[in-house]
Amino acid sequence: MKVIVVGAGAAGLMAAHDLVANGAEVLLLESLNRTGGRIHTQNLPGFTNHVEAGAEFIHGNLPLTLKLMKQSGLTYTPTSGKMYQSVNGKLQCGFGENKSWEDFYEAMSDLKNDRTVSELLDFQFKAKKYEKLRREVSDRAQGLDLADISRLSVFGIRGEWANEETQFRPDSGYSELLQWLYNQTVSPKFKLILNQKVERIDWANDEVTVFTNTESFHADAVLLTLPPVFYKDIAFLPQIQDTISLFETIGFGEVTKLALEFEWPFWENDYPDLGFLFAAEGFTFWTQYPKRSPLLIGWLGNDYAGNYDKFSDEELLKKALLNLEKAFHSKFPVKELYRTGTVFRHTKNSVSRGGYSWPTPQTRKSVKTLQKGIENTIWFAGEALYLEKGAATVEAALQSGKKAASEIIKSLKK
Ligand SMILES: Cc1cc2nc3c(=O)[nH]c(=O)nc-3n(C[C@H](O)[C@H](O)[C@H](O)COP(=O)(O)OP(=O)(O)OC[C@H]3O[C@@H](n4cnc5c(N)ncnc54)[C@H](O)[C@@H]3O)c2cc1C
């Protein structure tokens, strides 16, 4: 049995690993000149430590990620820093911890039929006293979920929003985990080819021909692990337009991440437990707490990322520094302490065309259909196709790859 896996991100590598472990022959095709996809740990000149261009945190007690971390012998550290907001000339500790938010969590949990976050706010939180809450909910959805509340499903996010768990960071960077997974998969039955952009797939029952920019390959089945917005690049023969259009019911947000390195962690005397800082104009910053590091990560979610896309990297870094200076109320000479910076764009016009997925009220039904694949020949995986705990994260990608591999193996045994 030969399977072509398309996309060498976390989902593709996990699926390839499990397929090979179960006796399948696997050809993994990746359009970029590297594996990892939205996981990309980089060692850049001028930075003291590695920087994550994409995924950085393990968002809670996520069983598969933590199991693989342990198996690989890689270490990870809890990120116990506090959240601060810049309010009226002062940094205030805490976010989302007031009565309005409690009311909102309760309303989300009491909801019997799914609706969008906007609908819930319009229905139950129209009163003037909830004005601030409405703004904060939208900012949180944009900032953390990269989502538009007018399409964001309450059922899809209420578990995650109400139960925040301790997060962790892989100490030596996320890419090492994927490198380990790749090393575990290496065998005569496994082949990875980079720089292969899949453009067309001809298929019949139990038979596929996959055409890339340079070659064509045959197999019994194909597993596609692309982000939702990439499916429109591939021509299928016969067409599977009804199935592919299901990806349009999955939200996919934009994000721009900045890394700013300073002479020293200037905030540490005044705010020794600073984890996250919600600043103005859509900027969120975070430290490497509890690790002592002069690195601050900046984050612009969804609309903010899109709006700032016309800025050059240099202009954006300048804007971030100005914003930081304001957030700390000019207490520190931020610009003088700045050493170097870089920008990672995951916006519509970038190579990754977006950051990660978010659920609409239609997503769950679509995902169920997509997970079944097409006639045991075309299969789908990727972070957007796993909606349980850890949705949209590396965990989701790994879980979806594992699940798809198991379905493919089952289909073979029938
Ligand atoms: C800025 C940012 C920060 C994030 N932070 C976190 C975090 O802190 N924690 C967390 O858990 N998650 C985080 N995520 C999400 C996480 O990175 C993703 O959920 C996960 O890495 C997705 O893995 P995947 O395999 O599903 O997709 P991808 O990693 O996108 O892999 C898909 C692969 O398919 C390839 N491909 C696309 N089209 C083709 C084609 N036609 N032919 C061949 N190959 C193709 C792509 O190049 C890519 O390598 C973040 C994402 C971003 C962008």
TrEMBL record:
<dbReference type="GO" id="GO:0009851">
    <property type="term" value="P:auxin biosynthetic process"/>
</dbReference>
<dbReference type="InterPro" id="IPR050281">
    <property type="entry name" value="Flavin_monoamine_oxidase"/>
</dbReference>
<keyword id="KW-0073">Auxin biosynthesis</keyword>
<dbReference type="GO" id="GO:0050361">
    <property type="term" value="F:tryptophan 2-monooxygenase activity"/>
</dbReference>
<comment type="similarity">
    <text>Belongs to the tryptophan 2-monooxygenase family.</text>
</comment>
<comment type="pathway">
    <text>Plant hormone metabolism; auxin biosynthesis.</text>
</comment>
<dbReference type="Pfam" id="PF13450">
    <property type="entry name" value="NAD_binding_8"/>
</dbReference>
<dbReference type="Pfam" id="PF01593">
    <property type="entry name" value="Amino_oxidase"/>
</dbReference>
<dbReference type="InterPro" id="IPR002937">
    <property type="entry name" value="Amino_oxidase"/>
</dbReference>
<feature type="domain" description="Amine oxidase">
    <location>
        <begin position="86"/>
        <end position="409"/>
    </location>
</feature>
<protein>
    <recommendedName>
        <fullName>Tryptophan 2-monooxygenase</fullName>
        <ecNumber>1.13.12.3</ecNumber>
    </recommendedName>
</protein>
<dbReference type="InterPro" id="IPR036188">
    <property type="entry name" value="FAD/NAD-bd_sf"/>
</dbReference>
